[in-house]
Amino acid sequence: MPENSTPLTEYGWNATLSNTFTTLAPPDSAPGRVLRVDRGRCDVAVAEGTVRALSGSDPRGASQLCTGDWVTVAEVLNSREPEMHTVTSILPRSSSIVRSSASGKSEGQILAANVDTVVIATASDGDVDLGRIERLLALAWESGATPVVALTKSDAAQYISDTLAEVSAIAPGATVLAVSAETNEGMDVLDAVLDGTVAILGPSGAGKSTLANALLADTTGADRLETGRVRTGDGKGRHTTVTRELIPFSGARTLIDTPGLRGVGMWNAAEGIDKTFPEIEELIAECRFSDCAHNSEPGCAVLTALGRGDLDERRLASYRKLQRENAWNAARSNARLQAERTREIKVISRHLKSHYRGRDR
């Protein structure tokens, strides 16, 4: 088994994964970790190094295979391409970061799998979007990973202390740091709180790739990821990262740099939203009625706190928006699943009818 094989252990292989592989792996397959996925194929780290593999036909669907997955791979015999492999199954995930599909379909899109720490990168040299940070926090908490908010470009920020305090107030339970990859300010502290597999999320122009290069510097000795300047017109960044890639770095850790996120829709993130707004959840528990809508009901602890100034109106509006969005996407998903079950029942019914008609002949 590959526990002592450096090419795989540097990506996080351990005894627990070895036991899972032994229990669930198909015959004639080997363990591996997906480094990147593109156009139905993927790069997979295995005990001998890195192989190119077809995404395969896992029961969960090839489209759901993503960077960070632990998989089983097998060599394709009689392939036109030498040493071609295929993914035969996806091992159970310890965590997954999921948002609603950017295409608008009633299904979730997995951004990264088996992540331990999520770094939410936000540029601090301009207007800081608190609502976006709350969205990303909800995704991170829901995934099961530990969120860290990195206020990047702190060397160019005018009021970084105020921004740090403002963001810390809306991120209870998460570490919030002001960092600069240019001056190295706060980078040692950031490096110290990162553990296991680290995914960096944020919009284009937030400095994700620059931050990643700074973290990878001790390992690669040079910039591993392409970076670009933000547009002068609107301050938005260009998409220099176009795919998710898993890269090993110091301390037996791995890092996933992700493309800039234009949209961050909620997907089955009820628990993540609750953890992002714990003070509102505490107030809800104190309402007189268990089905309180927090609009005009008597004995509503949320409205009382809002009236006293103990609860920020923007914060409540953000909470309500994420809850509505999450409920809407959940309803769409349930409708899709019900339609799929109905189609399956019809197919089985037609098959049975055909079988019995043939038996009577």
UniProtKB/TrEMBL annotation:
Single Gene Ontology BP annotation: ribosomal small subunit biogenesis
GO cellular component, one term: cytoplasm
Subcellular location: Cytoplasm
Main location: cytoplasm
Enzyme class, broadest EC rank: hydrolase
Binding-site residues for Zn(2+), renumbered to this chain: 287, 292, 294, 300
Subunit-structure text: Monomer. Associates with 30S ribosomal subunit, binds 16S rRNA.
Family from the record: Belongs to the TRAFAC class YlqF/YawG GTPase family. RsgA subfamily.
Task of the protein: One of several proteins that assist in the late maturation steps of the functional core of the 30S ribosomal subunit. Helps release RbfA from mature subunits. May play a role in the assembly of ribosomal proteins into the subunit. Circularly permuted GTPase that catalyzes slow GTP hydrolysis, GTPase activity is stimulated by the 30S ribosomal subunit.
Protein name: Small ribosomal subunit biogenesis GTPase RsgA
Organism: Rhodococcus erythropolis (strain PR4 / NBRC 100887)
